[in-house]
Amino acid sequence: MNVSARIAGALALALTANLALAQAPAPAPQAGLSGKVALGYLATSGNSDSENLNLNFSGDYYAELWHHNLAGRAIRGSTEGIDTAESYGLSWQSDRNLGEKNYVYGRAAWDRDEFSGFPEQTREVVGFGRHFISNDRHVLNGEVGAGFRQAELLDGTSEDETILRLSGDYTMRLSDTSEFKQTLAIESGDSNTYSESVTSLSADVWTNLAVVLSYTIKRNSDVPVGIENKDTFTAVSLEYSF
To answer: In this structure, how many other beta carbons lie within 10 angstroms of the beta carbon of residue 218?
Structure first.
């Protein structure tokens, strides 16, 4: 066998091994509780331009057929004693598996942002989800649901409406110590369409510690005059996993 044939054979073997690894199913999450807590620096633009500290957390509980998630965030900053950013969020979602690929879910979320066109919003949604891809390298999930949204406006009035929610998340494992993640959620009603996109890149720096760089875009289609319809958040955080 000549050198070219040996090289071609080695490349074919390596490619086959990589494809097999990429297509191997991801290990099932272990039953029990796990979570993440992150603290870091945050720069905002849109309705508030400032530099602040931010805190966020996420906790997951896995059982045989169920997955429960509780997530929250807090952002607060001031410049020369004047508040320039204040935002809080809390969400809960429960998934019930219908097999290896499909699941149904219920979700409740609350957000408060003093510097947006909607100071407070609450949503309740039920829907259907599917794990489109789940292996050692790539994870892709999609969800569709319907429910209700209650929003408080700047003038003190309230706005209640039914909404359609579309969401998805994609994770790519770049190496044993780093990963890329993209999430997108769109909640559309007759009066307003709210969307939130989060792009993040994380790298492990110690056993349970990672540095996370993230960029978040929040957008409302209809806002009061004088209010920006888009806010962006750029964060660098230190994240602890347990």
So the answer is: 20
